[in-house]
Design goal:
heterotrimer; A alpha/beta; B mainly alpha; C mainly alpha; A: alpha/beta; six-stranded mixed β-sheet; 24% strand; B: mainly alpha; ABC transporter involved in vitamin B12 uptake, BtuC; 12 helices; 3% strand
């Protein structure tokens, strides 16, 4: 495939007797929104972990932008433009929203061995952070500490942080987890605005969002990719219907399981 | 060569004592997620109790039995009064709190028994050496230590692996909320586990008393060794503690016995004399550092917590 | 172009980088003022013991400040920090014994030695977290303690007397108690100021972020290990300076300086004062050392009270003394 930004080949990971990723092969081209769906336990979290670099693969390769990143540590992948958002918001609770995003900005401005200047007064950090918050609709919550933000605001901040690292490939791990229908719609609108300027790998349960956004969909069942193609084709695929879509009609709004 | 075998046996003996301490520590940490620095104090109290009870009853064995019982009791009381209020708090709070307990117990011992140490004499027969292999004479008592601690280790294994209490202990280590939800009296379980750890520590303290020491602060020195054992063996793993304890015991003993001489061969006498004792004390820390480089989780890591 | 985007008002540690008079600032200000006046008090009342006692307080406060950097801001609970007091002290002692009495040589070497040891210990220990880290730092400190005991040439277990304090030519005479007091006082304030700037710099935010959520830090692109290591080294070096001062103060250095209970004392000072607060370590050092001093005058068995007191603090107090005063909890 021309313009493949991410090329995953034969990625495998076992945990004891359980095979969480079974020779996963994926290709994502630049500018694409590629969704990965699958029933609970299909191995989606493991896949994200493998791509982000938190989990080491036992077999297979990951090629990003032409280079082999299979053995690269997490922070290096981020430096290369691979950003990741967490399914359960992973923020800095005792810092403000602005501080949170500013850290993401700081991470990508060279090294941090600067010991004297007050980083909270640094224009190069605060301006892009402020902009990222505006973009996420959180500008008026800039000075609020994270533990006082609402769940939805935290989810938005979660994405804003990933975006602040100016990624080329964005790994979104169930961004709509725990969101009500209105918030989900807002998130979908925001993601739609990103389409084209960024490549997105979207892991999601919320089928409305998936079909609204995805250019292509891969279906993961028991760690294996059983189908991959355009949304219409995947929807019609009998194997997919059988394994997944039939049970999932009731989860359209992606309400969390307790 | 014979000296080497003797030192090896000494190493095993030290290892077994360390195992008893490390087992108690790792049980408490594995099940209650509690860092107990005062574990060494329980070891010390065991020795002091034994010295007193043995002097009163005139019998070493009676002293031992009473001391272990007292340690068990002491452990449970301590858990009820102080330790249980630390559950669920951060490890730093545990460190701070149990550090306070160390200070308290050291001072208490000084108050009750005075600043000079005590002695725990053995029945005369125990002190004679016996020929175990042609040419190798080894003191009976040290053999007793090895066998007794092995016995206790076997007993511990049976309790943890084969008894109902042990099953609860292992379940509690994996998932304490679940065990509580099943209606098991978690509080009682914790008290028992802590008491068990205290009894093990007390027993170790009594056993080493006749050959090593009964003095204030003895707990801290060996506690750090026990920590090293746990680090090398892997936190939460009793099997790891056993293997690591033997390794640490052997390396420390053999290091102290042979390194100074080895160094004298390799370096000048002056350097060897300066560095010898220091380096031989360091040998287990070097081992620990090596483990940290190659296998930071330890040799037999239990499920990560 | 450096514009001014003001730090949000309820951002932590605003009080540190901008002067804001609140109730919480009153205690540190009063304390610093009181400490500045100790030599005056001593001169007036001819109580030279006060200077001796409070010099020690100032020096150990520097140690506590350095520990607070890694513990309070960095989230690394080190139970082996007293090792640096010893290394700094022994560097001075050893050099003095070997005929090198100049402070210009001793002090930089002592700090460098501390930094080097911290580098070694940190590189190994920082691969671990939580309980492991506590135990490992403890073990390494114990190791260096035994090394010191084994150094017969430098006194071994009995310790090493330092007959002459470090000389700085005509710059300053450390034998003058009052001058030495103010030197320590100045270095303490300088340390606190240094920490204030450090913790709000890019480096400081990286450290604090790593404490808050290390996983996320790595996910956004920070190689957190190296920042923690550098932080650890800085703390070790600063504590080495405290060791240098202590050796000069007592004209003596011994392995007991590095005993793990000394490391415990430092932890107590930091926690008592309030983890991760700027003046907390000073408040904690003053409180702890005065308490220790006071208790030992009242009873022959001070730890019978001190021990349970620490336990109570561990159980009931969140945020240390500073937290108590401000009525807030950290984080």
């Amino acid at each position: 495939m021309a313009n493949a930004l991410l090329h995953v080949e034969g990625l495998t990971r076992r945990f004891g007797g359980v095979i969480a990723a079974d020779s996963v092969t994926l290709e994502i081209s630049a500018g694409e929104v590629h969704a990965v769906i699958g029933p609970n336990g299909a191995g989606k979290s493991t896949l994200v972990g493998l791509l982000a670099g938190e989990v080491a693969s036992q077999e297979g390769t990951i090629r990003y932008d032409g280079g082999d990143i299979t053995r690269l540590p997490v922070y290096r992948r981020s430096r290369l433009g691979l950003a990741r958002s967490f399914q359960i918001s992973s923020l800095f609770p005792d810092f403000t929203a602005l501080d949170n995003v500013a850290l993401a900005v700081q991470a990508h401005q060279g090294h941090s061995f600067h010991f004297w200047r007050d980083a909270r007064r640094e224009y190069e950090l605060r301006k892009p952070a402020q902009a990222a918050l505006e973009h996420a609709g959180l500008a008026d919550r800039a000075g609020v500490r994270v533990h006082r933000l609402s769940h939805g605001e935290q989810r938005q901040l979660e994405i804003a942080m990933a975006l602040a690292t100016q990624p080329r490939l964005l790994l979104l791990d169930e961004p709509m987890a725990g969101m009500g229908p209105e918030e989900s719609a807002q998130m979908v609108a925001m993601l739609r605005r990103l389409k084209g300027s960024m490549t997105i790998l979207l892991i999601e349960h919320d089928m409305e969002a998936v079909f609204a956004l995805a250019d292509r969909i891969s279906v993961l069942v028991y760690g294996r990719v059983i189908a991959c193609g355009r949304p219409e084709d995947v929807r019609a695929d009998p194997a997919v219907r059988k394994a997944y879509l039939g049970e999932k009609e009731s989860e359209r709004h992606g309400r969390p399981n307790a | 060569m014979l000296y080497f075998i003797e030192q090896c046996l000494n190493g095993v003996q030290l290892g077994m004592l360390l195992f008893l301490l490390a087992a108690g520590l790792t049980l408490v940490f594995g099940i209650m997620d509690l860092v107990n620095l005062a574990h060494g104090s329980l070891y010390m109290l065991g020795a002091y109790f034994a010295a007193t009870f043995a002097a009163v009853t005139g019998s070493f064995v009676a002293g031992l039995a009473l001391a272990v019982a007292a340690s068990l009791l002491m452990g449970m009381v301590l858990e009820l009064v102080a330790i249980r209020r630390l559950y669920g708090r951060g490890h730093l709070d545990h460190v701070l709190g149990t550090f306070g307990l160390i200070l308290f117990f050291n001072e208490l011992v000084r108050l009750v028994w005075g600043p000079a140490g005590l002695t725990l004499p053995l029945p005369r027969e125990m002190l004679t050496a016996v020929q175990i292999i042609p040419g190798v004479h080894y003191p009976i008592y040290r053999l007793v230590i090895i066998l007794a601690t092995l016995g206790v280790a076997a007993l511990l294994y049976l309790v943890v692996m084969r008894s109902r209490l042990g099953m609860l202990i292992r379940a509690g280590a994996s998932n304490r909320e679940m065990v509580g939800a099943l209606g098991i009296n978690i509080k009682l379980l914790y008290t028992l586990v802590f008491g068990l750890g205290a009894a093990l520590a007390g027993f170790a303290g009594v056993m080493q008393a006749p050959i090593l020491t009964v003095q204030i602060g003895m707990g801290e020195n060996i506690l750090i060794l026990a920590f090293v054992v746990i680090i090398i063996g892997g936190i939460g793993s009793i099997r790891g503690a056993f293997v690591a304890a033997l390794i640490v015991g052997l390396i420390d003993t053999l290091g102290r016995a042979f390194l100074p001489d080895l160094l004298r061969v390799a370096l000048s006498t002056n350097a060897a004399q300066t560095l010898g004792p220091a380096l031989s004390a360091m040998s287990i820390y070097v081992l620990m550092a090596a483990i940290l480089v190659f296998r930071p989780e330890g040799l037999f890591p239990a499920a990560s917590r | 172009m450096t514009g001014q985007i003001d730090p949000p008002l309820d951002s932590p540690l605003v009080a540190a980088s901008r002067f804001r008079l609140t109730a919480g600032m009153a205690l540190p200000v009063l304390l610093v003022a009181a400490l500045a006046l100790i030599p005056v008090y001593a001169a007036v009342t001819s109580d030279t013991f006060a200077i001796t006692l409070f010099t020690r307080v100032l020096i150990l406060a520097i140690g506590a400040v350095s520990l607070n950097l890694i513990m309070g801001y960095g989230g690394m609970v080190s139970f082996g920090h007293a090792a640096y007091l010893g290394i700094g002290g022994y560097a001075v002692g050893v050099l003095a014994k070997e005929g090198i009495g100049s402070g210009f040589v001793q002090w930089p070497l002592a700090i460098a030695a501390s930094a080097l040891f911290a580098l070694g210990v940190g590189a190994l220990s920082l691969r671990t977290r939580g309980v492991y880290f506590i135990m490992i730092t403890l073990a390494f400190a114990q190791m260096i303690y035994y090394v010191a005991i084994g150094l017969d040439r430098y006194g071994g277990d009995d310790g090493l007397t330092i007959y002459k304090r470090s000389t700085f030519g005509s710059l300053i005479d450390l034998n003058n108690k009052t001058l030495f007091y103010y030197l320590c006082f100045g270095l303490l304030l300088a340390s606190i100021y240094f920490i204030a700037r450090l913790t709000n710099s890019r480096f400081g935010l990286a450290i604090r972020g790593a404490r808050s959520n290390d996983r996320r830090m790595r996910a956004i692109g920070f190689p957190t290990f190296r920042y923690r290591l550098v932080c650890f080294v800085i703390a070790g070096a600063l504590c080495g300076l405290a060791g240098v001062l202590l050796a000069n103060h007592t004209n003596f250095v011994s392995p007991a300086l590095m005993h793990w209970t000394r490391s415990g004392d430092l932890i107590v000072m930091v926690v008592l004062g309030g983890l991760g607060s700027l003046f907390g370590p000073l408040i904690g050092a003053v409180t702890f050392l005065l308490l220790e001093e006071g208790l030992s005058r009242v009873t022959q068995y001070p730890d019978l009270i001190l021990g349970p007191l620490l336990l109570l603090v561990a159980i009931y107090v969140n945020g240390g003394i500073e937290g108590l005063i401000e009525g807030r909890r950290l984080g």
